[in-house]
Backbone:
């Protein structure tokens, strides 16, 4: 179908692909590192389920995830001679993790272990001593000095911390710089990445894709080895490109890609390569690499930003022209976009699509989420927000003359005293539109004043109080619709306009929403460089027993599920928590108690003197189980057991005393809101 654009179009596309191929060699060379003779951490390979630099909500993945065939207990070995200098035992995060410093300065990290090697290295004995010393089941970091040899057994794979069974493996250059383990280890992989779609994002009020400010998605189909589109959408003004790409690694995976680059015609615009990160800065900048509106984990969905819009210097950027912002205003006609993606094995895929640079009138026929009526005067004025500006919409009656429409006066008034007159235009039938710029002239809550200089007053004067708020990069407090968000300095990468809207969602069973306090940030997916404290104020007359059960919850529109974030209480009665991603939040009160169900052993079963297994299911629908409250005892003696929040299971092993007859098992637990579960009691012989 591309041939429909003519011979010139095909020639231009071919030239673009040729030049893109030339740049491939330079990009591969910039990312290549020598592979040396280390041993693989597992004695057998089951493939990978995650690679370096992938999306993990606010952060980037700093290692690779090794599959363990969905089981635990596989032998984990040291990749090279070195010294174990640190053990880590935590409830979440990496769970049980081990750190080795090697003679060449590299550090290897092994996470989510089931247990450390004890027979030769005595590592579990060290942990036991630390637990006894601190009284903590999860004592955190334990610094040691234990010599190990290349290939020596150091522990067993597990599922402690976050996630199901797998081994998280990292390499670091020093303490603060993770590097890609697949720059040293080779992973067999014959399948090239998949490039599913490209996304055009207009930038600024004078930019459009097919006449709209919205993202325009270009779906791709593979033909003759290249991902292509048979459409050439019209673009005008400045725009950005995003790409949805992933790699299967010869399995049923959706992993990230190692390198990805964008060309416009025959010119390299942007490229990035994931070979190193930096703890404390770049590792928490997932919002600069991936678009939060589309990216997700788990299940994984990766949409890469092929631009550096904010001009931030990060280690994954290989090449960048003009921050990756495309502007074809002075170059009408067809242009070719080319995207290439590589995996760690060097397999490469190419996608190409054309855009038609042409002046275009806005195609929007009405503001979003507004249904037209015969009498526009009954519609309310409203404000839409985009990434870098806001747009005011004012309805005008069908009876209003052009002179009346031109006489409408719009002003934006900031709380700081700044005032800006807006220039309205009739964007579509029955509606005037005006742009609120984000250029430093306004900041804080913005009130829109609407008036008419016409004598017949056909358009009634109106005021939209705190319609939007511009938060400066220097920081500030946003308050809108009952929600408060505190932005520290440099949490935002630039001044940002926000709108907070009320939304309706389904509550959890036994976990009602407080006073319908559910609010959504617009625009979605704004990247943050620091935590923002989001809070709601509890109603004055709320019973105290409910106040202590309240917490900030985040609503995921992709899964239609609530997730508990936390419940920091402020002196003014507000409840909130620090977040690194602005989405939809609500204030919920958890009145639902957890439930405990015994899986093994069955009540009444005959037990052995030694080596009995305990498995119990503990489920909570609200704030989640507080692991510190989970206690299992047999005949009054505490069982060494761990609660896995991913599987909702308590697992442990226990022995019986010398007493004959009946043995009594007791399990107790509470959730993070303080609701206790009904204790589980069972008797065994």
Residues:
């Amino acid at each position: 179908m591309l041939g429909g654009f003519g011979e010139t179009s095909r020639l231009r596309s071919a030239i673009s692909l040729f030049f893109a191929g030339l740049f491939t060699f330079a990009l591969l060379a910039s990312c290549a590192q020598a592979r040396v003779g280390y041993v693989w951490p597992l004695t057998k390979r089951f493939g990978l389920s995650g690679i370096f630099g992938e999306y993990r909500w606010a952060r980037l993945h700093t290692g690779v995830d090794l599959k363990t065939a969905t089981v635990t207990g596989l032998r984990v070995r040291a990749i090279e001679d070195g010294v174990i200098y640190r053990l880590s035992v935590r409830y979440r995060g990496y769970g049980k993790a081990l750190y080795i410093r090697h003679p060449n300065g590299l550090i290897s990290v092994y996470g989510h272990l089931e247990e450390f090697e004890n027979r030769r290295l005595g590592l579990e004995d060290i942990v036991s001593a630390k637990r006894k010393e601190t009284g903590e089941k999860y004592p955190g970091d334990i610094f040691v000095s234990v010599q190990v040899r290349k290939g020596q057994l150091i522990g067993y794979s597990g599922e402690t911390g976050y996630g199901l069974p797998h081994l998280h493996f990292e390499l670091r250059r020093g303490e603060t710089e993770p590097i890609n383990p697949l720059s040293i280890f080779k992973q067999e992989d014959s399948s090239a990445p998949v490039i599913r779609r490209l996304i055009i994002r207009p930038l600024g009020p004078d930019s459009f894709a097919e006449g709209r400010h919205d993202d325009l998605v270009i779906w791709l189909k593979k033909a003759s080895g290249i991902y292509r589109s048979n459409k050439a959408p019209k673009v005008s003004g400045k725009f950005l490109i995003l790409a949805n790409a992933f790699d299967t690694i010869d399995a049923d995976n959706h992993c990230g890609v190692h390198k990805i680059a964008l060309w416009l015609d025959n010119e390299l615009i942007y490229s990035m390569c994931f070979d190193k990160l930096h703890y404390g800065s770049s590792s928490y900048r997932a919002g600069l690499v991936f678009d939060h509106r589309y990216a997700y984990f788990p299940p994984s969905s990766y949409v890469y930003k092929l631009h550096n819009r904010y001009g931030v210097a990060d280690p994954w950027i290989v090449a960048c022209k003009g921050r990756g912002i495309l502007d074809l205003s002075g170059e009408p006609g067809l242009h070719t976009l080319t995207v290439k993606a590589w995996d760690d094995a060097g397999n490469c895929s190419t996608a190409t699509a054309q855009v038609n640079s042409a002046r275009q009138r806005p195609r929007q026929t009405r503001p979003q989420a507004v249904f037209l009526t015969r009498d526009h005067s009954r519609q309310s004025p409203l404000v839409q927000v985009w990434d870098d500006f806001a747009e005011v919409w004012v309805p005008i009656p069908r009876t209003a003359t052009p002179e009346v429409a031109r006489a409408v006066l719009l002003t934006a008034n900031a709380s700081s005293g700044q005032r800006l007159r807006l220039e309205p235009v009739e964007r579509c039938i029955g509606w005037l539109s005006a742009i609120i710029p984000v250029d430093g002239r306004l900041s804080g809550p913005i009130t829109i004043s609407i008036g008419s200089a016409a004598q017949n007053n056909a358009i009634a004067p109106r005021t939209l109080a705190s319609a939007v708020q511009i938060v400066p990069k220097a920081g500030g407090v946003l308050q809108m619709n009952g929600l408060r968000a505190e932005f520290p300095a440099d949490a935002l990468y630039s001044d940002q306009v926000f709108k907070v809207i009320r939304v309706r969602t389904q509550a959890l069973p036994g976990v009602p929403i407080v006073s319908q306090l559910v609010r959504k940030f617009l625009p979605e997916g704004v990247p943050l460089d620091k935590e923002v404290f989001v809070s709601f104020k509890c109603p004055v007359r709320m019973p105290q027993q409910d106040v202590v059960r309240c917490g900030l919850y985040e609503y995921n529109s992709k899964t239609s599920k609530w997730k508990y974030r936390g419940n920091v209480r402020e002196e003014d009665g507000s409840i909130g928590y620090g977040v690194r991603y602005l989405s939809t939040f609500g204030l919920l009160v958890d009145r639902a108690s957890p439930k405990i169900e015994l899986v093994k052993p069955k009540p009444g079963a005959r037990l052995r003197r030694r080596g009995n297994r305990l498995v119990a299911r503990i489920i909570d629908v609200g704030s989640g189980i507080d692991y510190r409250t989970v206690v299992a005892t047999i005949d009054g003696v505490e069982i060494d057991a761990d609660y896995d929040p991913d599987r909702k299971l308590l697992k442990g092993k226990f022995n019986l005393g010398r007493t004959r007859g009946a043995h009594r098992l007791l399990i107790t637990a509470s959730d993070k809101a303080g609701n206790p579960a009904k204790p589980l009691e069972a008797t065994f012989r």
Summary: The two ends are 76 Å apart (CA to CA).
